[in-house]
Each structure stands twice: as structure tokens, then as C-alpha cells.
Amino acid sequence: MIQTQFSGSHAEAHALFRAFQILLYYENNKTDAGKVYTDLKNKYPEHPLTWTAKIQLEGIDGYHSFRNKLLFPKVKPRSDLENPQMFTLYQNFPNPFNPSTKITYVIPKTAKVTLSIYNILGQKVKTLVEQVLNSGKYQTTWNGQNQNGEEVVSGIYIYRILVQSYDGQEQFGSSKKMILLR
After folding, report:
1. From edge to edge, which strands make up the β-sheet containing 136-142?
2. Which tens digits make up the pLDDT trace of 23-34?
């Protein structure tokens, strides 16, 4: 069991999670990372970092491939951006990020756009955009804060765009994952 100077506090959960990630990713020691995860799970069973650690530990092989896709996204051709033909949501950059990241999306015609951030449990964290936008390429920054202006914890977050064309004939929805590291 790892001892910290923050016993029983929110800070201890963060310290345990950081120790877990160091063991798992930097030292490639899945056995000791599993022990730290067990401590985290026993002390903080409902904490979001416990859920994030569980996902990372149980799906480590798939997680590395997922992480590489996030770090090295495919770049769209320039002509695609100058004359938008279809609704598009791009991977955020940078990813992983701290303290902020940019989310880029393309709207080919006037539409009502809602762009929201969700935690890994599916709970809405913040709505970044909720308005009617004209055709074009847009970029929005998320600073890692919730709707109340409070910083959120490290972990995997999902951003989702929902678009309804102004004439009501077309709808588009897309989601992508991002990682916040504090």
C-alpha cells in the first residue's frame, strides 16, 4: 500500500493515480500498477480517477493503440477545409493536453450547433457551443473546466457535436475522445 501525506483527501486520490500512471506507462510495471489501482479502488471506489485507472489497466493493449491515434492524427487535405462539403469533427489538439485544447469542426451550411464535453461516465461536464453558425471552419478551446468554472480531474473525456441544418433537413452527430493530464 502506498502512503501519502494527504491520507483520505482528494489530493491523495490524485497522488495515487499519478503513481499508477507512472508505474503503468513510464516503468511498464503492470503488476505494481495493479497494486496501486487496488489501493485507489479500496479508498476511493466512486472517484472518477478510479474508473479511469480501471479502463487503462484492463485495456492497456488497446489503450496504447488508441493513445497513438490521438497523438498522431491524420491531417485533412487543405482543399477540404477551404470549401467545406460535409459536416466534420476533427480530433482535438494537443491530446493529451494540459491546461487547454482546441477542438476544430466544419459546418458546410448554416446550422444549429451544440458542442459539449462529457466525462467517461457520460455525465455532461460543459457545453462549449450552443448557437446557430454559418458555413465555415470553427475552432473552440476547452480549458479543462466544468460549467461552474471549476477545474476537472485528469482522465478521459468525450466531446460530442450535434448539428441540425437550419432548414431542418440534415442532422449530424459525432464524438471523439481526449485525455486531460494534470
Report:
1. 88-89, 101-107, 136-142
2. 877 777 888 888
Q: Give 79-92 pLDDT, tens digit per residue.
A: 444 556 788 899 99
The DSSP code sequence of 97-139 is BSS-EEEEEEESS-EEEEEEEEETTS-EEEEEEEEEE-SEEEE
Lookup result for grid cell 482543399: 79
Query: pTM, whole model, 2 decimals?
Result: 0.55
Question: What is the C-alpha separation between 58 and 51, in angstroms, rounded?
Answer: 11
If asked whether residues 83 and 41 sit together in one domain, one would say no
* 142 inside domain: yes
Q: Could you tell me if 140 and 108 are in contact, meaning their C-beta atoms sit under 8 angstroms apart? A: no
Here the cell at position 46 is 466512486
Contact in structure between 21 and 54 (CB atoms under 8 Å): no
**43/94 same-domain check:** no
Say whether both 131 and 41 belong to one domain. Answer: no
Residue 54's SS3 state is helix
Q: How many domains does the chain have?
A: 2
